[in-house]
Write a structure and sequence with these properties.
Blueprint lengths: L1 E4 H13 L4 E5 L7 H11 L6 E6 L15 H5 L5 E5 L7 E4 L2 E5 L14 E6 L9 H16 L1 E13 L4 E12 L1 H5 L9 H8 L2
Parallel strand pairs: 2-3, 3-4
Antiparallel strand pairs: 1-7, 2-5, 4-8, 5-6, 6-7, 8-9
Length: 205
């Protein structure tokens, strides 16, 4: 576990986002990402159905007191083939993780790279040694997943596959949207709580 700031923090967040292969978790009250990250990180993930992106956010308001969705990072992420969006009221934390490492930080993705702001973060890696488990990684990951499960799952999109070579292989054949309550969130209408864990049991990761 390391305490980071300045360039080491920026570099670690970049690595966490860039090196995600199976799972990428982004938690932030508002999802707005810098042009740098769009071009240098997320562009490579855009057509990767194997990467499940989970984004937890709060109902961010813009200067006109309306839901800041159009033109935001959330709208951009709807183009990704394997995506879950979870609305968590009163969310104020920022957390970025892949299947191997995580960063808990004060830094937003809009601030990247750090120029005129001072931010801190804590970095931890998953231990693959059964004896030497990283308790901070495991505890924080479990806590974050519990927080996600307590929120309102409002969007779920999953890849579809067609079988090839007598069923011995499969090819990506587009994605299907299984859940979309974003219009209700934007319009401030009441929504039925749908737990992330319940959704996963129905449609899978």
């Amino acid at each position: 576990m390391d305490f980071l700031t300045a360039k080491p923090l920026s570099d670690t967040i970049y690595d966490t986002l860039f090196k995600a292969e199976k799972e990428l978790i982004i938690i932030s009250p508002y999802i707005q990402i810098s042009g740098y990250l769009r071009e240098n990180v997320f562009k490579q993930h855009l057509n990767n159905p194997k990467l499940h992106i989970i984004i937890a956010f709060d109902k961010y308001k813009d200067n006109n007191n309306t839901f800041g969705f159009r033109g935001s990072g959330l709208e951009y992420f709807l183009n990704f083939p394997n995506l879950t969006l979870v609305y968590i009221p009163q969310l104020n934390a920022k957390y970025y993780a892949n299947e191997r490492q995580l960063v808990t930080t004060s830094m937003s993705l809009l601030s990247y790279p750090l120029i005129n702001s001072i931010d801190f973060g804590v970095f931890a890696e998953k231990s693959f040694n059964i004896v030497g488990k990283n308790n901070f990684y495991e505890t924080s990951k479990n806590t974050v997943m519990s927080v996600i499960d307590s929120g309102y799952t409002v969007f779920a999109k999953r890849p579809l596959y067609s079988k090839k070579l007598l069923g011995l292989s499969k090819a990506y054949a587009g994605s299907a949207v299984y859940l979309n309550l974003l219009d209700d969130v934007i319009a401030n209408r009441s929504i039925k709580p749908i737990r992330y864990s319940s959704l996963i049991s129905e449609i899978g990761r």
